[in-house]
Structure formats: structure tokens, C-alpha cells
Amino acid sequence: MKEIKRQREENLKDSDHKKQKLQVKPNDLNKFDDLISSQPTSFEYLPNEIMYKIFEYLNFHHIYIAFSNLNIRFENLLRNSKQHVEVSCSSMSKSTFEYYHKQILIPNQYQMRSLHVTNPFIINSIWKSLSNFIQLEILHLNNVDKRQLKNIFKDLISLPKLSSLTILCIESMKTANHYFLDIFQIPNLKYCKVKLITSAHDEILPFCSKNASPIEHFIIEDNIYLENLISFLSYLPQLHRLSIDRLSGKFVNQMNNRNSILSNNLTHLSIKKTMISMNCFELFIQNYFTRLQVLNISRECVGEYINGFRWEQLISTSIQNLKSFALQINCKINDLLMRENIIQQFQSPFWQEKQWFFVCSSYSIMFDSYINLYSINPYR
């Protein structure tokens, strides 16, 4: 009992001591105010390390406009900065860019890490010095004139650190194969998004016989023919993700004994609009894409892609690692019983076990009835 009483007394003493430490006398507050007022609190007095950290969150164009003519210290900060420069020239007038190009891009060309340009005039002005951006890692060029492509790709091959490339061309061309071959030669490219619109059927690319591309994620915003895509893949042994706007043509197994040179690393495939038959699609998957984990397909059809049993068979036998399946099909069907049968096919135990669920809506145009079948919440 005495021991408990002694502990309580010690706790009370300790509490009183803490209260005394927390109490602030008026004289102490005055001293604190004097200390604060004696220290420089202006933005320009922040240490260089903090200024450079702030710069990391700003567009280099805005940094230059705000600080370049402020004082000698900030002039030196910009001139001697070792940080990577990220530049966006998306909404500049011609006169603004000419000043910007001379005062910012050229002096900092060896530090340029990221460059985003959407103005065709700016692209035309900048490609001449593109090969000097030896630190460039990310390049986004939108609204590119097809006449500029040859010179642009020639310079891109010489950029040792370029890992992400987006090139969207505004005009159609007869063939794009030679540009794809240039892309495959960029030494450290991991991500590539291209829009190279072709007005004719490209010749089939020759199979890769030399150094392959390190690209892991490829997005093609254009039509590509199936027979050319197979040759295309021979250049991309590290490819994990492939997205295509439109897939057409027919399956021709021109590989024969060359299947071994094609990588089987592709895990994500997305086709916004497939124009090939279901037979061709099945052969394509069975021969080249058996390790798929994510499959997104959209199709306007007359019936074959809307066969739930056929999809069930393909998935259970050829792409057993599939974890996510997104399907959207628009189809003309006037038979009410057939519509009910289609819905039931996608409600079998197979789909329920996978937790892949589908919705089927119907609508009419003139005297024809259509259904729109699509998956919901495909990603879990």
C-alpha cells in the first residue's frame, strides 16, 4: 500500500515538473519574436538546395520567366543547375517560341530530360537540334508533318537515353514500315506510342535478323494487318503490352519453323476494333499469345464473336493465365430467342467462377434490331 502511495506522489511531482517546462514567460515570448524578426524570411533567401527542389515541381519555361531576370543569384541558379530540364512547348506563339528556343532550349539542350511539343511549327524548328539532347528520356511530338519524320527518326536513333517516345502524325502516307524499322533501332526505348496512318496495304516486314528492340509497351493508333503484325513482333522480344486501334487482314502462318524467334512475353493485348474473323483470331492467339493475362476486344460482327461457348473454349484451352477479360460486341440480331441464348452463354458457371460479368442491351434502327454485349468491371 505504501509502495502505491509513493508511486502516486512521484507521478504528481513529474506532472508538475512538465507543466512548469511548458509554461512560457512573457520575456521568453519577446526573445522568440526578436529571434524570428532577425532572420531573413524572404523567398529569395532560401538555400539553393530548397530552390532546386521547388524547381522540380515547375515547368522549366515558368521557372525561366519567373526567375531569369530577378537578380544575379537566380541567374546563376538557372545557369549552373544540374537538374534535368522538363519542357512543354504546347501552346506558344511563333515569336514566344523563337525567344524560348534561343534563351532556354539551346543553353539547356544537354540537360533536357523531357520534351513535349504539339505545335507543328515548333516541331519543324526543333528537330534540327534534336540530336544534341543527349540526356533526353521522354519525347512527345504531336501533329507531326510527315515530311519531318525521316529527319526526326534519324536523330532519335542517336539519343542514348530515350526511353519513352510518342509520335502522332497528322497526315496519311503510303507506307510506314521504314519508320517502324527506325523505331526498332532506338537503343533504350521502353515505351512507344505512334500514329502513322497508311493509305495502302503495307508490304510484310522482313523478319528480324539482327539486334531486336527493347520496347516493352507499344501502342499503335492505326490499322495494322495481321500478316504484318506477326513479322512486326519478331523485332519485339521484350514486349509485354500491345495496344492496336484496328486489326484487319487474315492469318497466314508464314513463320513455319521461326516460331522460336518470337517472344512469348506478351501479357496485355488490347484491340479497339478487330476486323479479322474469329477463326483467324483463335489461330493468332493459339500460336503467339498463350501467356496473356489481360485481353480487351471490341468488334462489330454478324455473330461469330458473340458465341460465349467459343470464347470459353479458347480461354480454357489456350490462354489459361488470363486474369482480366473485357469484351464489347455490337451485333445485328432480329431473333428474340437468339438474343436470350447469347445472354445465357455468357452466364455459364465458367464466367461466374472467373467473376467476369456481362450486360446485354438492345436497340432498333429502322426495322433492324441490335444488341450490345459488353463486360462490366473486368478488372478486379
TrEMBL record:
Query: What segments bear the compositional bias annotation Basic and acidic residues?
Result: 1-17
* Disordered: annotated segments: 1-23
Recorded hits in PROSITE patterns, A to Z, give: FBOX (PS50181)
Give residue ranges for domain F-box: 40-87
Which residues does UniProt assign to the signal peptide? Answer: none
Q: What is this protein called?
A: F-box domain-containing protein
Species of origin reads Adineta steineri
**What is the organism lineage in this UniProt record?**
Eukaryota, Metazoa, Spiralia, Gnathifera, Rotifera
